[in-house]
């Protein structure tokens, strides 16, 4: 068991999962707007199992897909963090950055803010050499977050866990190397 890494950004706390996160997490996983670019909405049992899995991974490794909570008011809004990507992806092994926020918190820069903190953990605390992200090609909102994080588009692939008949099967891959991250931090400090 590792000590869980937790961190704060200007407006958010990224932390280990709690029992009280399960209900709002299930609500966002059942929201068709939130799940539009994922294969299916989740049942309450599936959502709880996902939260349990994320909690377990953070408990084991110390990092993962953290529960995202607004500082004011104290409110769970989704998850943001780092995850060892599934082995069946064509670019694995790798660590991906991902996010899923409740619809009412979209368009406020919260995903980008939390993801920047997660990238800092990944590159500075964990010493990662690269972080990737991917989504369905149609998901322009998540792709915009990836671009704001200075990630570079690196081609497309057919996601092996999405049915061949699905319009969501074609995914785009984004990458950010440690060198690109460090260069961006140097530029940011000069501003």
The beta-strand count equals 8
What pattern of helices and strands is seen along the backbone? Answer: EEHHEEEHEHEEH
What is the overall silhouette?
A: globular
Instruction: Please report the distance between the alpha carbons of the first and last residues.
Output: 40 Å
Structural class: alpha+beta
How are strands sequenced across the largest beta sheet? Answer: 1-2-3-4-5
Overall residue-averaged pLDDT value = 95
Individual helix count: 5
Range of helix content:
25-40%
Characterize the structure shown.
- The protein has 191 residues and is an alpha+beta fold.
- It has five helices and eight strands; from the N terminus they run ββααβββαβαββα.
- Helix 1 packs across helix 2 (44-61).
- It starts with 6 loop residues before the first strand and ends with a helix.
- The mean pLDDT is 95.
Sum this structure up briefly.
The protein has helices at residues 22-29, 44-61, 110-125, 140-148, 178-190; strands spanning 7-8, 12-15, 65-70, 75-84, 95-101, 130-136, 152-158, 170-177. It is built from five helices and eight strands.
